[in-house]
């Protein structure tokens, strides 16, 4: 485990050292703002993270303790607000990036909430502390990552590649490790990549094979899909000129770090004892 962390940290460090000298060249080579696949990934790249938070909130809502107490109702109200918030964010992202009617936002919200409710309902039949840990890790990961990268963006002020292209000047280009001050606008919020950070939160799905017996043999497949998503979404961000290679690398690093820390403190490396109940869950069979 320690060797894995060392390799991971070293990999991020090496990439950032390389990108410190090659950021601009990489963007020049990959820039293709009209690429349909890149634009599609721009629209859906962050959706999984929002749905993870939505689903996790829904599950925690349905498994609250001490029914009838003040805490029970207060936590219910809190989770309710969070559920609506993430349903709205996910829906707004789709409408915004796909440039479709805003009147579809309520419809998307209802669809997302219903789907997450159905899955959380099947999970809540098994009132398990381990499942609550998984849900808590999911919710906190998304919230902490959102706050973290947005605060850094506001204070770093790195100009986006696409903005440099639009004004026909690269004088504003800066290396990733040099803060440029408070961001003047969204075009100066290149570092780090929010899309990449949110896309990397799909790493949450790696917890499922460690709990559900039916997914244990599919662990490698799950990891392949996770890594694929964590690679293609960041690359798409470079292609549309929204970020540099170092921006997306730090975005992914933020999410992986937050996830690993939360897993360590919440999960506490407890050993899971699979039961027959876990093996018959309908969604575990589908994954």
Structure description:
With 287 residues, this protein is mainly alpha-helical. It has one domain (34-286). Helices cover 69% and strands 0% of the residues. The chain is built from twelve helices and no strands. Helix 2 (36-44) packs across helix 9, helix 3 (47-62) packs across helix 6 (129-156) and helix 9 runs antiparallel to helix 10. The chain is globular and about 60 Å long. The two termini are 26 Å apart.
Question: Features of this protein?
Answer:
disordered C terminus, 12 helices, globular, mainly alpha, 287 residues, 69% helix
Summarize the structure.
The protein is an all-alpha fold. It has helices at 2-30, 36-44, 47-62, 70-98, 105-124, 129-156, 161-167, 194-200, 219-239, 245-267, 276-279, 282-286.
Termini Cα gap: 26 Å
Report the sheet-strand fraction. Answer: under 5%
Number of structural domains: 1
Mean pLDDT: 90
**Annotation, overall tally of beta strands:** 0
Helix content: 55-70%
The geometry reads as globular
Low-confidence stretches: 271-287
How is this fold's topology laid out?
Layout: H1 2-30, H2 36-44, H3 47-62, H4 70-98, H5 105-124, H6 129-156, H7 161-167, H8 194-200, H9 219-239, H10 245-267, H11 276-279, H12 282-286
Helix pairs in contact: 1-10, 2-4, 2-9, 3-4, 3-5, 3-6, 4-5, 6-10, 8-9, 8-10, 9-10
